[in-house]
UniProtKB/TrEMBL annotation:
Keywords: Carboxypeptidase, Disulfide bond, Hydrolase, Metal-binding, Metalloprotease, Protease, Signal, Zinc. Belongs to the peptidase M14 family. Residues 139-435 form the Peptidase M14 domain. PANTHER family: FI01817P-RELATED, PROTEASE FAMILY M14 CARBOXYPEPTIDASE A,B. Its cofactor is Zn(2+). The keyword Metal-binding applies. It holds the Pfam family Peptidase_M14. GO terms for molecular function: metallocarboxypeptidase activity; zinc ion binding. One of its GO terms (biological process) is proteolysis. This is Carboxypeptidase B. Coiled coil: none annotated.
Amino acid sequence: MNAVPLAPFALTVNTLSCLMSMTSPKFDNNGRRNYEGYQVLSISNASSQNGLFDIQGNVLQQLYSSDKLFNFMGEGPNKNGPTDVMICPEQANNVKSLLSAYDIPFTVKSANLQQNIASNVNENNKILAESQGTMNWNAYQRFSTIQSWMDSMASQYPQFVSVETYGSSTEKRPMRVMKISASGNDGSKPIVWLDGGIHAREWISAATVTYLANEIINHAKSGDDTDLINSVDWYVVPNMNPDGYEYTFTADRLWRKTRSKTSNRRCFGVDPNRNWDWKWGGKGTSNNPCEEIYRGPRAASEPEVSSSQKYIFSIKDRIQLFISFHSYSQLLFYPWAYDDVPADDKDDLEKVANLGAEALEAVYGTKYRVGTPPQILYAAAGGSYDWAKGVANIKFSFTFELRDTGDYGFLLPPKQIIPSGKETLAGVTAMVQSVMDYYRDN
Ligand code: 0X9
Ligand code: ZN
């Protein structure tokens, strides 16, 4: 990557970078991270067609990596849509004048991020209070509510729902999978794997995954005997990062990583989607524990990741379709993520993804782009679905980046859970069908 040429205005960057906000964030008296004065900018990529993206991308990358002026909301310059960045109060004016000096167009999406967080959290809390800890899809639910719901499904429908604990997190929360086998889990049928919540702040991911599981249970209850219910078993993990997820409710709505201790006593957590044991430490990862894309001290250092790897590996021969859910940007990725290299079976993967995106769009017109992360966003090594293909040898492995494209971003209003669930169910259904067709013919 080329360094950004040193222009005279670069000298105006003052020494107070956002590093302080990264290593010593401000918390309220009630222990909650406060984002007062943080801003979100949407940086246009209008010039991506004529090759200017690389220059802009380099400027952004340089501002980020050497000066720590901001954090990416989606973790890197985005080749597809605009790139959203979060800037700390100390540097808000500086970043804006630097962008203007480099002729990089941007809009201010949020002039005070704390306000957006407060309205998202207040709206959700109101609905949670009304439902008093019982599961529903009108609000984003706490970890314990999701877990109790899984247990209650298993006790109400023991003929086809069961729950297994396969590991435990750094803070000793259980890693649990819900298995839905309408025709009895006799160990013979192909498995569809769905996981959510690996990034803590991506609330819509866990919510959508539980929505899908609930719908599948409803179909099984009503005696639906389509292939989707009768010919596959569903293995669903709504919370791949339980500690991080709870931390977003109790302390920091925008927390992404796990909550393990690191070599830096001020900085916690590893990016669990950079920690899997396939091409670990490669592109799009960091060895700095204070960064959002910290890969951890070694592959599978996180108990959440190592237990998931072990569990998935033990059932890998039955998994025909593996899907991890993230947000946001409305994208559907097929491998590889670690580098811009085509998978040998790219055509098979692309076909399934395209059918999924089309079926999803048919519900409400929500558009998803299909491709690989290096083509659409950026390369990122050590992610779950690359591991599923590379190590566990699961041919059909995908990642969704769910709603939206940035209007609300991670702070997606709870009203969108059900619509997101409905359209995603249509997309996943089409993908399952297409994978089953593939194995029937091959
Ligand atoms: O950076 C990520 O991990 C994902 N984007 S997110 O904004 N949800 O953090 C992209 C995942 C791409 N896939 C893999 N690297 N496996
Ligand atoms: Zn994510």
